[in-house]
Amino acid sequence: MAELLFWPALLLYGEAAVGYFGDARHPGAAGRAATWGVRLGWLVQTALLAVQASRDDGFPWGTWAGSLNLFVWLVVGAYLIWGCRRPYRLLGLAVMPLAAVLLVVSKAGGGTGTGGRSHYSNLFLVLHVGLVLVAFAGFTLAAALSALYLWQERRLKRRETSILRRPAPSLAVLDRLAVRTVLVSVPALTLGIAVGVGRLISRHDRVDALVVATAVTWVVWTAYLAVRAVGWSGRRAAYLALAGFALVVLVRLALPATHFG
Amino acid sequence: MHLVLVGTSHHHAPVELRERVAFDRDEAHAVAARLGTAVCLSTCNRTELYVEAEDADEAERRATEILAELEPALYRLRDHAAALHLFRVAGGLDSLVPGEGEILGQVRAAHEAGTPGPLLDRVFRHALHAGRKVRTQTAIGESPASVSSAAAALAEQVFGDLAGCEILLVGAGKVSGQAARNLRSRGASIAFVANSKTDRAQLEEHLARADVVVSSTTASGYVLDAETVERTRHGRQLLLIDLAVPRDLDPAIHELDGCYLYDIDDLEAIVAETLAGRRSEADRAEAIVAVEAEKFHEWQASLDVVPAIASLRARAEEIREQELAKAEGVLGRLDESQRHAIEVVTSRIVDKLLHLPTIRLKQAAAAADGVVYAEAVRHLFGLGEDER
After folding, report:
1. Which residue in A161, A165, A170 is closest to B156 by CB distance?
2. B83: distance to nearest CA of chain A, Å?
3. Which comes out higher in pLDDT, residue A121 or A40?
4. I need a labelling partner for B166 at 20 to 30 A (CA). Which of B111, B128, B155, B272 fits?
5. What ipTM describes this predicted complex?
């Protein structure tokens, strides 16, 4: 059943990615088809996660690949909040190809199947993995919004004649959405890390590279909020968000082998 | 029933001629009422009379009388060509600026003020539908078509919602006034209008709070330089629109972080690009309009065969009921459910027998053979012979 749901979800995310490319060239029907691809794909992936949850004994996304599956669902779900609006279709151009690729990686790692079993307690996994993934999904979106900000700002600085022909969300809106997303994500990461550290101490486990990198990620995103509070905005804040996202990529993709057991 | 159009537009008549037959809403209603079943579409770019009539020549003559002053500049269209024209008008494809948004509301108002019969009512509703489709399925009307509206749209690209944004107007030329009006219509407010008597301190005080600066003075030097802007705006984002020639604002301002300076050439280049975009979108819009006009044509053509179809179906139903009545002796012995079953079966036989001829008749009507086919059906089935 999970297998049957994976392919339509991937197909719909792929269709959305292609649709957004088409929309960037000729705005209109391709963009609408892409948005429907995102909506339906996300619903199918929701069904996939529901099947995994009902079939598995415990929290089904405790593995690296499983958590990637959940991560994709969270990112696409968060994107859907704004993604249906026309100016944000450009954001889909960044989000949907990434979602499709990560879903394939999750499948390759066995994260989309059923019957898995983790030796961690459900409560710990829900709190630790769930909260960290929610935070990382938020950071991913904040980074995408920041990238869109830099692109839009560059167009304004270069006085591109096509700026009104292909309008993007305004600088102010992108800036505001990015900081709001981070404002939700940092507390989630803080709690997720706290749960993990609590367990680390109680079991006398050692600190691995992933824990260190996650802590550095937390420092960078907390610093992002701190500098915003003292007046940083615009381009400098967007670059800091991209630096924070680079750490998210490192934590999600490069270092997980040291942590998931 | 025919659809007749007599009118003139900016393509055929200069404003000196058009203004002679410009009608307000009440006058448009009076003109339509004078013509019987008609709609008068009168805007600053066109005056068109749409008339629904059995006698097309007579309707055209009466409409021409009303617009007689413009005779050499009048165009006359009928039926499909008239409908296609109206669809193009509603889609903004016949406008001075392709895709301009006001025309759809003007077509709606004309329809409401008119005295349309069934055909005119249908063609105007269909035209409004086509116009909306053009706007939702193409980007023809999305980008600004003037320097002043481009300035306002640029402000939205920086600040999003302009509610709460403050405008500092430096000088008050015609274009800067239009730009300020455009900005205000989108929610911004004019905080201060500086002129040659405004002292430097006052200007800088308002610059410190402004989000948008629109400048168009006749000063020979820069009114604002980069150093002043950097010192006063405290890192806030600032959009500066310089509409003056020679320029009022130091080009180095654009290099400051968070400052975006556009002069008249920049804005004109943006408008040229958006107009080019509108023209390329117009090709897609034309295709939408053509499809909708064809649908209307098919509907109108089907009117030729509707009476024949209705007669054919009525005749079949009459025969069915007669035969059931003849069989009353047998049917009388059946219970209610069995009688109902027979009613249903005989109705289905009639419907299935007539389904294909009905479809074929409508197709023939769309291919302009409707009248011939309708006559053939009447002859073959003896329709209307009882009345003769």
Report:
1. A170
2. 26
3. A40
4. B272
5. 0.76
